[in-house]
Structure formats: C-alpha cells, structure tokens
Amino acid sequence: MPSLTTDRRILLGLLVLNALLKFAWLHVNELSGDEPFTVFWATRPLGEFWEMLRTENNPPLYFLLIKTWTGCVPLVEAWLRVPSALFSVITVWPLFLLARRLGSSSMATVTCLLFTLNNHQYAYAHEVRAYSLLLLLTTVAAWLVVRGPGGSAVRSTVMLAVVFTALVWTHFFGWLVIGLLGVCVLSVPELRDERRRVLLAAIIAVVAFLPYGFIFFQRAGESIAQGTWVNPHGAEEIWHMVRRWSNQPVVTLLLLLPLVLVLIRERLRSYALRFALLWWLLPLLGLWLVQWWVPVYVDRYLLFASIGFYLAAAHALEALVRTTRFHWAAALIGVAGMAFTFTPWKDNEQHPSLVAEQVLTWQMGKEEVPILVRPFYYKPVLWAQLDRAVDEPAPWSEAWTERYNDVGVPGNLQAAEEFIFVYLTSADTAAPVVEGFCPVEVVQAERLVRVARYVRTGMNRWPLL
C-alpha cells in the first residue's frame, strides 16, 4: 500500500507538471502550417464539411471535436489549442502505468519526464491537429494490451475495441498502431495470451470503420499511386527522427549510449527492453524502407513510435548503474539533459499575420481587388488572419483554385486592372508570370512567402521588378 500511495503521488505530480507546462505559451505561435486547415473546416457548415472529407487524408473525429469546441470558446490561438494540450497532459497517465507494468515505478517516472521535457512533443501538444490525440490513444491501447484482461476479459476487450475504433477514426495511421500491437502479441512471449483479445478488438474496429472504408481505400489508393507531398529521405533522417525526440544531438547521445551498453550487457532478456525496442525500431526503420514506394516518412506520422524510444531510454538509464548508492545517477543526467535543452517558450518563426498585413495594406480602399494564392492550400492560412469566423461563408467558391476572394469580388481575373498575389517561394525565385500583367511591388512578408501587386501591362508606369 505505501508503494501504491507513493506512485499515485508521483503520477499526480507528473500530471500537474504537464498541465503547468502544456497550458503555458499556448498563444506564442500564430495559426500556421496545417492548423488553419483544421480550423477552417471545423468552422464550416456540416454539408461542406462532409463533402471535404471525400478528399481529405484524415478521418473526421478530431475535426468534429474541434467543431464542437469552437462553438464554445473564442476563435483564438490559445483556446483552439486547449484540446491538444489536454490530450498531451492526459497521455502521462497511461504512459506511467505502461512503463510501471513493464519495469518499475522509477522507470515510469523517468519515461514520463523524458516525454514531458521534449520540445517535439510540446510542439504537437500546441498544434490544432490530431497528433496529440493519436498519441494518447496509442498509449492507452499499448497499456491495455500490456496490462492484460484485468478483472473481466469481456470488459477489457470492449475497452480495447473502443480505443482501436477511436484510433482509426482519428488518423489513418491508427491502423499501423493496431498492426504494431498485433506484431507485439505475436512476437513477445509475455504478450501471447493477448492475441485473441487484440484480434477481437481489431475486428470490431474494422466493422466500426466500415462507414468510412470507401473514402479510406480511395485516399490510400491515390497516395500509393501518386505519392504524397513528402520526398523520400536518406538514412540520416533516421538519426534526425530520434534527435527530435531528444531535443539536441548531445542529449540524443546521452540517451543512446546507455541503451547500447545495457543492450550489450543484457541482450534481450528484459521484457521491457524487448517491447520498447520493437515499438520504437519497427516503425522507425520499417517506414523508412516503405517510403521508397510510398513517401510517408514524416516526423508527425512516426510520433506514436516515440513512446517506445522513451521506454527503452528510461529502462537503460535505470539499469546502467548497478550499485545501489548511485543507481539514479544515469537517469538524473538523462533527464537533466532534456530539461536544460527544453525551450517551450520559443516560437516556430512562422508569422502569417505579416502576409495578411501586407495584403490589407495594398487592399486599403480597394476591396474589389482580386487576391490569388499559390499554392491553393495556403488559402486557409490567409483566411485564419483575414476572415476567421464560425459558420461564415468562405471568401472563395472552390477550395482547390488559386482565387481567394471570388465570392466577395466576382468576375474573371482578366477583367481586373490589378490583383494581389500571395505565393510561397524560395529566396531566389522570381515573381510568377501572369499573362497580361506584371508585378510592380514585391514584398518578402515571411521567410518563404511573398506578396506581390500586379497591374495590367498597359497601365504599368514603374520599372519591372
């Protein structure tokens, strides 16, 4: 009982620490990257939202959660990120229970601290995307399998099936998590009694996913046939992936070196180490091989594998020093390394508000001026700065075209005397060529985003840029 009471206090302390950190600095970064896409579609009427899902690479669960949330809170960065931060905080609970079941209370504490003090995890805890929810569900699923059936096999199977279903309705990579658990129960001797339960839960998840199955296979087929926006990476990306989970290269070595030493000494006798390495290395190396056929080797897609890395590192740090007096030394150094390189207050250096500010400056008194955005998927980013609202009509009639404001400013672009062009570019790229127009002003609003003002060629009175 004293040990159980101590564990509860440690877990409560870890949850409080995570809450204090994850709910701080929610406002530091502007809505950027894929966040505006989530917010835009979560604020659309349901008819438009369901139509969008036919071309979307993510299932609707997280979108629906954010849609419900935006109906209750102001549409500002800090409030929009609260659900993701909350999911990341709660992840500590099943992570502690999972690590304790595999090893000990001290291993569980170290595992949770490594997770808590990681900049990469913190970034996704502050992103209006589904990844922190996916990681929470992944950790719960792993704990339910490692824990075993508990008091009731039927109840535990139903619980696992519910988690599996939530996983695949949150992200298509939820199927990879289920597959990975299947590999674990087939190959780890201590988990072989869980094969039947995992199989039944997976079958229930398949049945529950059937309403979305057609869209899933359609999107999967297109991704396999056409590839994604991600280019294949060289072998160095495997190192970079692990480095992201450990903040800085020096800390990566501080965590990997004890792991190698313990692995040489123990080989694979430890249940905790076998499970952790399988959970970490199989997706890390397997997806790297798959990327040459389907380029999906992205840090966010591999976030679920990070749990295995933290479990393996925590076990190694705990097992490295055998003497009772200094057994905690390696763990202290590893956690301290993460803490000293943890910088949650830093922004991501993306400031789309500067792009919107330039557009508004040139649009002043000329709201009828057309706005073009290239590529088209940057339109929600601009929308988040110019027209963010719940259930208001979108400024464009078609999501996949470059025209931003064809609803408010109808008509053919060729009928306009001037327009504003927002485009992503590298530093040495010239302004896009538009027949009949020439750029008269170009501003580098962000590191990779320029805003240009184009006028009809016959009206030009300035030197071409």
Structure overview:
The chain is of the alpha+beta class and 465 residues long. Helix content is 57%, strand content 6%. The chain is built from 19 helices and four strands. A four-stranded mixed β-sheet has the order 1-2-4-3, covered by helices on one side. The radius of gyration is 25 Å and the shape is elongated. The C terminus is likely disordered.
Q: What key attributes describe this structure?
A:
single chain, 465 residues, 4 strands, elongated
Order of helices and strands: HHHHHHHHHHHHHHHHHHEHEEE
- Main β-sheet, in a few words? 4 strands, mixed
Strand content: 5-15%
**Over all CA atoms, what is the radius of gyration?**
25 Å
Task: List the total number of helices.
Answer: 19
> What strand line-up does the widest sheet have?
1-2-4-3
How would you sum up the global shape?
elongated
Strands, count? 4
Through-space gap between termini? 76 Å
Helix-strand category: alpha+beta
